[in-house]
Amino acid sequence: MGIEPGDYYDDIGEEEWERSEDLFVHSVEHKNTYPYLEQHLPDDGHILDAGGAAGRYAVWLAERGYEVTLIDISGEQLRIAREKLKERGLLERVSIQEGDIRDLDFQDRTFDAVLCLGGPLSHVVDENERRTAAAELVRVAKDDHPVFVSVIGFYAALVIHALEKWGFVWKIEGFYERQKYDQKHINLGEADEEAVFADTYFFRSSQLRELLESNGLRMGKMVGLENIVSVIESIEDAKEELSEDYKDRLRTAAEMI
User: Is 103 exposed, middle or buried (0-12, 13-18, 19+ CB in 10 A)?
Assistant: First the structure.
């Protein structure tokens, strides 16, 4: 069976925070996102970090003076977020509450910007529920204010599968048609294995664009965040020994879609 997203992120605990600190390759997602936030966020205001897990973006926002509301479906991730914010003296800037992006407990047009980064929408595998979640993100954003969304890409999953980085992909019945990893479609066959990842819908870029534009958003810019960089073997174990020039080139490669 697949794993419910809340259960999965409860189980992995600190790994979700630590993954972008341990290795350069895992930091690319955040380092490629920050410049776009800096470019398009308002100078100040109240920001929703929807599905923000252990608070990586909430910390970044609070450090820059924003008022932040962080919600996530995982109580354990929110516990870690509270701890990280307290360590940095930022807890008073961030309101933390358990919540689901499919049913946001906020009034219409509450926030000066909405973030849904790191793939929360990808963990909503039912199409109707994804549309509900996207509509909720738009509903709680003030008119003409930015909504930032990142998802887990279908083509990235195919590349990673081809390179045999994710062994679980071949167990999915009809993956190329359904683009899903969930408990309804996993075929473990005779393998004595358990699901290793949360239920996930893998987006094509055109599908993400359609989903957001159908809810009244105008697409500003679409970029990749990790792309092929996540599977380059020579940097999988690299840390500070990578030159800054090489890191810049890797970030450029990651942004291609």
Answer: exposed
Q: How far apart are CA 163 and CA 29, in angstroms?
A: 20
Tokens of 13: 């605990």
Which domain covers residue 94, as residue numbers? 5-254
The secondary structure of residue 190, as a DSSP letter, is T
Q: What is the CATH number for 67? A: 3.40.50.150
pLDDT (tens digit per residue) in 149-196 = 999 888 776 766 555 555 555 555 555 556 665 555 444 443 345 556
Sheet of 94-98: strand order equals 94-98, 67-72, 46-50, 113-116, 147-149
Return d(Cα 26, Cα 18) in angstroms, integer.
9
Report the domain count for the chain: 1
Residues of the chain with pLDDT under 50: 1, 185-192
| Coil, strand or helix at 21 | helix
Cβ–Cβ under 8 Å, residues 50 and 116: yes
Residues 6+ away with beta carbon under 8 Å from 255 = 32, 223, 224, 225, 227
